[in-house]
Every structure is written in structure tokens, then in C-alpha cells.
Design a protein that fits this description.
single chain; alpha+beta; Peptide Methionine Sulfoxide Reductase, Chain A; 6-stranded mixed β-sheet; two-stranded antiparallel sheet; 7 helices; 34% helix; globular
């Protein structure tokens, strides 16, 4: 039996409503392989994919982004179920997996493509990200170092090449620690 969208909604309203309610969050925190792996482990994250955001070149390749000339950051687009995980929790994960006080560098990787950034998808995310950053700065966790994370509107997400998707998983690694 084939069902139309409206029939499916009547038959399985909770499931179709939940599917429609997924939200996106996009983060840059250095090399995207470890960032993707960290977010994939979060309960309530539906998917995570690596790519590039924040630059001026249309359809950049990894090699283009590595030149530092495109303006893109290596980023992870997270699709999440806000019923199962809050955006605030995703921000907590983001802050915990990198050093937001280093400009254009994470561990051994340096260049603007490795910058710390939160690409917000709506005004609510912007407000929550800003408040989260300000609380973290005031906490003293990083001493006197200033948090340099950019909080900017999400732009076009350019998905990275397939060989970068789930890279650590494909190579039998749980993660890559740069802190």
C-alpha cells in the first residue's frame, strides 16, 4: 500500500512531525574530522556532515580551502532533533572539543580554514551562542585569554568530498585530540 504525505501524517503523526522538526547547527572548530566524530556521538544528533562555510568561492574543493584563499572554514553541519538534544548542549560540546582562544589554529593545524566559528541559522541560535560564549569567557576557564570564536550568520554549506565524510570512522579511529 502506498501512502501520500498527508496519509502518512494521519497514520504516524508523531513520526512525521518529529522529522519536520529537525534543526541545523553549524560549527567550525579546527580539522573537521574530529569535530564530526564528536557530534556524531551526541544522542539526538540525526546526522553530521563535513564541509566548508564562510568563504567566497562557489563549490570549493579541499585543496582550494587549504590554500587559505577562499575564506572558508572547515565546518560540520549538524542535523539534530531538538526534542532529544538542545542547541545549548551542542554549544557545550563545541566549547569542549577545541580551544576557542586561538585564532586560526587548532593543535598543529594553522590557517583561517581552522578558525573557531559558530554559524547561526536564526536569531535564537545567535542569541544563545553569544550568551554561551559570554558565560564561558566570564567563567575564567581560559584564564585571561580572550575567546576569539566568530559568531556569524550561516551561509551556503558546501559539502566536502566523500572521502572526508566519516573519515575517522572509516579509518578505525575514535577521534583526534588536538587540545
Amino acid at each position: 500500500m502506498t501512502t501520500t504525505g498527508s496519509q502518512a501524517q494521519r497514520l504516524w503523526p508523531r513520526e512525521t512531525q518529529r522529522r519536520r522538526m529537525n534543526e541545523k547547527a553549524t560549527f567550525a572548530a579546527g580539522c573537521f574530522w574530529g569535530v564530526e566524530a564528536a557530534f556524531r556521538r551526541v544522542k539526538g544528533v540525526v546526522s553530521a556532515r563535513v564541509g566548508y562555510m564562510g568563504g567566497k568561492t562557489v563549490g570549493p574543493t579541499y585543496e582550494d580551502v587549504c590554500t587559505g584563499m577562499t575564506g572558508h572554514a572547515e565546518a560540520v553541519e549538524v542535523t539534530f532533533d531538538p526534542v532529544a538534544v538542545s542547541y545549548g548542549h551542542l554549544l557545550d560540546v563545541f566549547w569542549s572539543i577545541h580551544d576557542p582562544t586561538t585564532k586560526d589554529r587548532q593543535g598543529p593545524d594553522s590557517g583561517s580554514q581552522y578558525r573557531s566559528a559558530i554559524f547561526y541559522h536564526d536569531e535564537g541560535q545567535m542569541a544563545e551562542a553569544t550568551a554561551s560564549r559570554d558565560r564561558l569567557q566570564a567563567s575564567g576557564r581560559f584564564g585571561k585569554a580572550r575567546i576569539v570564536t566568530e559568531i556569524v550568520p550561516a551561509a551556503r554549506f558546501c559539502e566536502a568530498e566523500e572521502y572526508h565524510q566519516r573519515y575517522l570512522e572509516k579509518h578505525g579511529r575514535a577521534g583526534c585530540a588536538v587540545r
